[in-house]
Specification:
Structural class: mainly alpha
Radius of gyration: 25 Å
Helix content: 55-70%
Strand order of the largest sheet: 4-3-5-7-6
Order of helices and strands: HHHHHHHHHHHHEEHHHHHHEHEHHEHHEE
Length: about 525
């Protein structure tokens, strides 16, 4: 029997490897075809500035944790000024995470091969990983680190060896260094382990100390940048979000705030209850499967039999602490965005979904086939809907993005300053940024900061921008991007808006138009 089981496992591992490679190929293709995401401008610009020797917060405004620009800056040495190259790194990180799930699910002691493969398929086919792990944002890196963290916590719970707690701490600390929403879960898990150690006097605080050591290592990028510019990192990552909480545009007018208790509750109900669950059937199915698995684990933990041991239940408790901590943190930003939940929750729901898959696979074969078909339909519907939305927005296509880049390069020299209201065009062209316009989210707080704060935190003022255009200082101006321009216009009075357009008309000539994007060259 042993050779047969060994050959079977090797065959399954080969299938997982092949599926992971196919996933990488498919995701790389999608990354080279899908439209631009708004935030890719400032993430890619942050990576470029880091590559040029600048430090986030101290040298430029950056409203995210610091690890992502450092990781993506490594691509610059291989292929400079390429958004697609950075997207390829995202695809690679995602494929590694998928492969790790496949290998570790197969090696999980109390999961049968069919359950492991079914759970692996739920990750492999996850449309939100496909959609969000193919762009230059925090998701690909954070999802990989969280995958590593969950796997290490499983190994730690099974073996009680300190090295696994250290590695889990490194991975989870790295998540917080990539995106601050993960910070609370790092702290909550520390408190949980501390309480666990106190209830196990023979162990002392070995688990807690090991995890703490690892998490500090993972937090080093955040700790170092904080030591260099503590006020700036707090402003960029904390105060900025409080200043623009509830930000949206109504008839071109910037509106902030929660709008009262009733409005806030309705926004969360609509945003989470309707948009996230009802409009995303795959996420609803994933959540339902994980919920069924979680309830089953609770029931099984109270019985003497069952397929699991106490170490498995300890692992489930650890993941539940991490899961609830992340969800609580993700609900703080207002309004809530679907992208805070659909892709990031996958690594945390998967352990519970595995038990849900065990329950599903225990049903009759006919019902099982129907459930599998339903899952494939949900995947197809989600991918079709997202692809249609991307294709409809041609202004954000990579072809038009490159067209704007070519227009900039053809009408400027490498050391020319380009005033672009969306930073991605300057990143790809290799030209110099107008001071402060490497991150377009600053328009939301431009009119809410003092002159001293603007100087300290690298935020340009509207007067600085309008005066530069009136004087013809930038070599080129790139307008467009409805969201960016609307947010900038929200800072201007009616007279300032007239002056803005008049200055462009008098000082600059139009050289290219792509939808709402207009490229001007100094006359």
């Amino acid at each position: 029997m042993y050779p047969t089981n060994s050959r079977r496992k090797q065959t399954v591992l080969a299938f997982i490897a092949l599926a992971s490679v196919a996933y990488l190929v498919g995701l790389t293709y999608f990354a080279r075809a899908r439209a631009i995401d708004d935030d890719e401008g400032f993430y890619s610009s942050g990576a470029r500035l880091v590559r040029e020797g600048k430090i986030p917060y101290r040298d430029f405004f950056f409203n995210q944790a610091p690890l992502v620009p450092y990781v993506y800056s490594t691509v610059w040495g291989l292929r400079p000024r390429s958004l697609v190259a950075m997207r390829t790194l995202s695809a690679l990180l995602s494929a590694i995470a998928v492969a790790l799930w496949g290998i570790c699910l197969l090696r999980a002691k109390r999961l049968s091969t069919p359950v492991a493969l079914a759970t692996f398929a739920s990750v492999l086919l996850n449309p939100y990983w496909i959609y969000w792990n193919s762009v230059v944002k925090t998701f690909a890196l954070a999802n990989l680190l969280m995958t590593v963290g969950v796997i290490c916590l499983y190994a730690a719970a099974q073996t009680d060896r300190r090295r696994w707690y250290i590695l889990a701490g490194v991975a989870l600390g790295g998540c917080a260094s990539a995106r601050l929403l993960y910070g609370p879960l790092v702290a909550m898990l520390f408190l949980w382990l501390l309480n666990w150690d106190r209830r196990s006097p023979l162990r002392g605080t070995s688990r807690t100390f090991a995890y703490f050591t690892g998490s500090v290592c993972g937090l080093i990028p955040l700790i170092l940048t904080f030591s260099l510019a503590p006020a700036a990192i707090l402003f960029d990552n904390v105060r900025y979000y409080s200043m623009q909480s509830g930000y949206h545009l109504e008839a071109g007018r910037a509106v902030t705030g929660h709008g009262g208790i009733l409005v806030t509750v309705m926004v969360y109900v609509v945003g989470i209850g309707f948009r996230l669950i009802l409009e995303h059937p795959y996420f609803a199915a994933e959540l339902g499967l994980a919920l069924a698995g979680g309830l089953s684990l609770i029931k099984l933990s109270k019985s003497t039999g069952g397929p699991y041991t106490q170490r498995d239940y300890d692992f489930a408790k650890l993941i539940l602490v991490v899961l609830l901590s992340y969800v609580a943190a993700a609900l703080i930003p207002y309004p809530p965005f679907n992208q805070y939940f659909d892709a990031p929750l996958t690594p945390l729901l998967t352990p519970f979904a595995a038990e849900g898959a065990r329950l599903v696979l225990s049903v009759e074969r006919k019902k099982l086939v129907a459930l599998a078909a339903a899952m494939l339909i949900l995947v197809s519907l989600e991918i079709k809907r997202d692809s249609a939305r991307l294709l409809d927005d041609q202004e954000w296509s990579l072809a038009n993005y490159r067209g704007v880049k070519r227009a900039i390069k053809a009408n400027s020299r490498p050391d020319d300053v380009i005033l672009s209201f969306w930073s991605g065009y300057v990143f790809e062209s290799g030209r110099r940024y107008f001071p402060g316009l490497n991150d377009e989210v600053i328009y939301r707080i431009m009119d809410r900061t003092t002159e001293g704060e603007k100087l300290q935190y690298h935020i340009p003022s509207k007067t600085q921008i309008l005066s530069a255009i009136a004087a013809g200082t930038p070599k080129m101006i790139v307008t467009g991007r409805k969201r960016c321009m609307s947010e900038f216009y929200a800072n201007l009075s009616a007279q300032e808006l007239v002056t803005f357009h008049a200055s462009i008309s008098s000082k600059y000539a139009l050289v290219r138009r792509v939808g709402d994007v207009e490229v001007f060259r100094r006359k």
